Amino acid sequence: MSKTTSIVDIIEAGISAESLRQRVIANNVANLETAGYRRLDVRFEELLAKALNSSGGVDLGEIECGTYQTKNTPVKSNGNDVSLEVEVGEMVKNTLRHKALIRVLQKKYQQIDLAINVK
Amino acid sequence: MEVNTGFSPIDIAVSGLRAGSKRMEVISSNVANARSTDNGNGEPYRRLEAVFKTDGDGLGGVILDEVAEDMSDFQRLLNPGHPDADEQGYVSMPNVKMPVEMMNLNVAARAYQANAAVLKRYQQMVETTLELLR
Question: For A42-52, how does the pLDDT look when each residue is reduced to its tens digit (9 = 90+)?
């Protein structure tokens, strides 16, 4: 994808990253007691910030939103580092980000609607 | 570049929740071992206490410092038939006091509730902000 300044495209990328993160958190919670499991997280905001800094627009093709294993997490005796509290906190944050993006998108569509229906 | 710092109240509340569950873990170990006369080193079980410290320069939440042993004296109980009894017939019992543990259990549960309440309130605050975008 080429450089885009369209807010709808950027919001779309954000929402798909949050959907992926929600799945990853659900996966972490499901593996709460799996021996040797290490929790995963989604890298997106850092990549977006990097793509944003290099030029005026955002090259969304440059952003490969993927999962990674988090480091420096305290590991339990069974080699598992998932903590229910952390996952709940991450899920709350993710939901709030998601809601914010949906609201902005809704606002953008309201503006478009206003432009179409102007009399 | 540091991003995602906007939700730090959530991270702090989560650190409080984790501290609360650690405290609960230590208390349950104390209660479970309240009558363990042998810890493997010829001593009865020593009561444990979770010690916490602030994470970072003050606004980073709370982090477990150490799980320290309570060095107060063991209780001595006359029970000559016990395999761990000494020559006088006394058995050293763990220095766990059940009323203290029950009180700490209440404190830990209330602290956990308080942190959960903070998290929930902050979530509601952000949602209030988002209502402005309607």
Answer: 988 888 888 87
CB A39 within 8 A of CB A81: yes
Contact B18 A85 (CB under 8 A): yes
Pull the structure tokens for residue B51.
């010690």
Residues forming a β-bridge with A18? none
* The amino acid at B101: E
**What pLDDT, on a 0 to 100 scale, did the predictor assign at position B5?**
65
State pTM to two decimals.
0.84
Tell me the pLDDT tens digit for each residue of B17-61: 999 999 999 999 999 999 999 888 888 999 999 999 998 777 888
CA separation for the pair B127, A107 (Å, rounded): 16
Q: Can you list the alpha helix ranges (DSSP code H) found in chain B?
A: 8-32, 98-131
Q: What are phi and psi of B67, to 5 degrees?
A: -105, 105
A88/B14 Cβ within 8 A: yes
CA-angle at B40, arms to B36 and B45, nearest 5°: 35
B107 vs A108: CA distance, rounded Å: 48
Burial label for B124, CB within 10 Å (0-12, 13-18, 19+), is exposed
Chain B partners within 8 Å of A96 (Cβ): 7, 123, 126-127, 130
Query: Is residue A80 predicted with pLDDT exceeding 60?
Result: yes
A109/B75 Cα distance (integer angstroms): 73
